[in-house]
Amino acid sequence: MRALRSSFKTLSPRLPSSIHTRKSLSTSLPPTDDPKCSDELPSGTPINAHGPEVVQSPEAVIEFLLSNQEKPSIALEFFEQARVQSTGGDDGLHDVDSLCIMLHILVRAGKLLDARNLMKISILGDSVALPSVVVDRLIETSRRCDFDPICFNHVLAFYARTGTVEAAVEAFKRMVANGVSPSLESRNSLLVAMLRSGSFSKAQELFEEMRAKGMNIDLSTIHIMMNVFIKAGKPEQAEVYFRELVDNGQLKPDVLIYSTLIQLLCKKPDVKRAFELLSEMKVAGLVPNAFIYNLLIPTCVKKGNLGEALRLKDEMLDYGLPMNLVIATSLMKGYCLKRDLDSAMDLFSTVLNQGIKPNNVTYAVLIDGCYRNGNGERAYELYLQMKERGMVPNVFNLNSVIQCMLKSNKWKEAFDLFDEAVESGIANIFSFNILIHWLCCVGRLKEACRLWDRMEDMGLEPNVVSYNNLLFGHCVQGDLDSAAKLYTQMSQRGIKPNVITYTTLIVGYVKQNNFDQAYDLLSTMHSMGIASNEYTYNAIINGLSKAGRLTEVKDMLHKFMEEGFIPSSMTYNSIIDGFVKKGMMSAAISTYQEMRRCGIFPNVITYTSFIDGYCRSNCIDLALKLLNQVRSKGLPLDIVVYNSLIASLCKEEKIEIALDLFHDLDKVGLKPNAFIFNSLISGYKILNNMEAAFELHKRMLSEGIPCDTETYTNLIDGSLKVGKTALAYELYYKMLEQGNIPDDVTFIALIHGLCNNGDLVGAHKILNEMDRMDVCPNVHIYNKLINGYFREGKLEEAFALHDEMLGRGLVPDDTTYDILVSKKFQGNLSTARTSNA
Q: Which residues cross the membrane (predicted)?
């Protein structure tokens, strides 16, 4: 040990003072399998492999390595044994010179793996010297052995790939300062390391330094630097480098360079410039790769240019590039956005036939397309197909299918699917929210509340959307007390109400003409820092207009404008419609003129209100005249205009004029909706022409127009009026089967019709059906049933119904008492006559 320390001290003065020797490494490299290395060391080897350790001095190790430069395996084995036998502590053997000489030998011999292993253990170890020292000793030791600059390239590349960026930069600068120019490949490795580490500004500085020193660059260098600027948020600089490359002419951009810039432009998106580059590269004789088409085709679809996307797809196929899932899914999405579900499904079939396996995104796109087209049945088929293919539908797929099925009125199937998803653990809070919202929209509030309880039982915490949905349900039902309790519960649970929460409540109070409470809520919302949106203000304006408080509307409008509200056509349309509904056509015209003075142009809704006003005033001729004026102005006519006109004409039994407008729909590019069909069916019902009414019903079915509750109610009512009770029952059960929920009008039509046809048993069953469906019967229904029982002499049942009505809190009207008194008197008179006889 004393000899070792003495030898080390003898060598130390010859080493640079900047070398920092730390803890010695004792880990050995993997043994070499070089066949040139014999089993026994040559004679004169300073280390005895089988006897006691003989620790050599650093200089002796160096001399041995230099004398065995042509025998790299022997040199490496000796170097490792010397390292293993070195002692620990600050005086241990750690000669940077011997390491550098060993690296020179290994790199020159092409043993790069051994060189990398050696660098990994030595340069990255705890005992390593600074990068600048390693470079200095590499230069110094290169003079004692055969100089080979390749070693410097490997050392720099090693620092770049495995060390810190700072160490790699230090090594590079030390090499350059000593006249060693690293290779282009190693410099690119350094720039890549800086890119990956996020050292964007330092990479730019170093690159400019390389250029200033006249170091050459290649396409890889340009590509690296373009990515540096893109990652640094300087995309314009990336394009500058690209243009320098093109304009310089020394290097020609390759497909990779073009694809990088096209990717950048697609993200902006600057589709025009991206296509310019595509043309430029094709002129240069370069063939675009699949990656470029994967960028451009989805971008075209997002921009709504499906035609160009399809052209690119054909071009890609012409180049011999196969269709892939990314492009196919993008095109399917394009078709779906255009509501061309058939083309999307045809492409899907093509993809399957080509052996391309769809993923969750593909199915999500198609299911969304089904939702846009109202095709719940096909959405459900796709969902099942996913499962058949062994794919696990995610909650997004599930929720899309449920929404689609609800939109298509397949609510039973939607709930079955939901129950299955709950059992399998797929359903989440959003799934519950979708169904709660739908139930509230269709007036099935009790079921919505039961679903809410089920959600909480599962441990799912309701969010603000959940509360907003249930609040909406209570407000629609007019139950503002329950809505207020729910609102209080939100605060207790720490859920912050949003603008939708307050607007929903405000609309609820407005509908009940409780404007004081609505104004209080508006103030509360503002005090909490929640700004009103256009819908909030317009809801109040619209509510005041509908309530006929038209003088108050003007004051509130000015107040809201002071708060920053900018009236829109929606605002003025509400006020105009309010005047129209009150029959104040002159005031409506005055508001229209004010609207024009404010620079707000009337739209179809504006003219629709006026047309509706003329229809309400029985001025059909003026309404038709205004319709022609709207046509002459070239304004696109809304289906609502025709709805109003046809409905009014049918009510006035002017069915022939209504049919003329009905036939005009095709000419103006509009399709008749359920409302128009219902108006015409109602018109024929008034004329007792049920044969024509059922022809229209048949046409609705053939054209795929869903029959709603009003459709079936009109058909049921008309059938009962002509004495076809069996047909009325058939229509009722068909309505239920198709998911249409009967409303109070349906039940009134059924009970009145059945009573008129002498089917009191059936009428009473319908009354019980109302209870089951949570539809409250009114006084008119009870009057009809009471009168029917009296007519058949069933006084006990009649008075039982009267008591039941009172128990429900319904107040009998004059008709009720007229029936009770007159029928009771007639019953007593009949009894007296029988007794006298």
A: none
Determine the distance from the C-alpha atom of residue 479 to the mean position of all C-alpha atoms in its chain, rounded to a whole number. 34
Cα distance between residue 600 and residue 82, in whole Å: 92
Residue 503 — very low, low, confident or very high, per pLDDT cuts 50/70/90? Answer: very high
CB 330 within 8 A of CB 298: yes
Q: What is the mean pLDDT of residues 486-511?
A: 92
Is residue 575 within 8 A of residue 550, CB to CB? The reply is yes
Check residues 382 and 123 and name the one with the higher pLDDT.
382
pLDDT value of residue 365? 92
Contact between 223 and 256 under an 8 Å Cβ cutoff? The reply is yes
DSSP assignment letter at 498: -
Contact 536, 503 (CB under 8 A): yes
Could you write out the three-class secondary structure of 689-716?
Answer: CHHHHHHHHHHHHHCCCCCCHHHHHHHH
pLDDT for 2 equals 33
Return the percentage of the chain with pLDDT > 70, whole number: 89
Maximum average pLDDT range among 205-209, 245-249, 501-505, 653-657: 501-505
- Can you list the alpha helix ranges (DSSP code H) found in 284-340? 290-302, 306-318, 325-337
DSSP character string of 427-472: --HHHHHHHHHHHHHTT-HHHHHHHHHHHHHTTPPP-HHHHHHHHH
Classify each residue of 697-729 as buried b or exposed e, where b means 16 or more C-beta atoms within 10 Å of its C-beta.
Answer: beebeeeebbbbbbbbbbbbbbbbbeebbebbb
Rounded Cα gap, residues 806 and 182, in angstroms: 100
Are the C-beta atoms of residues 429 and 467 closer than 8 Å to each other? Answer: no
In sequence order, the 6+-apart residues with CB closer than 8 A to the CB of 116 are 154, 158
Cis peptide before 777 (omega within 30 of 0): no
Mean pLDDT of 76-100: 66
Torsion angle of C-alpha atoms 657, 661, 667, 670, degrees rounded to 10: -170
SS3 628: helix
Can you give the length of the chain in residues? 837
- Range in 42-51, 570-579, 605-614, 772-781 with the lowest mean pLDDT: 42-51
Residue whose C-alpha is closest to residue 596's, from 616, 573, 579, 612? 573
Whole-angstrom Cα distance, residue 106 to residue 202? 32
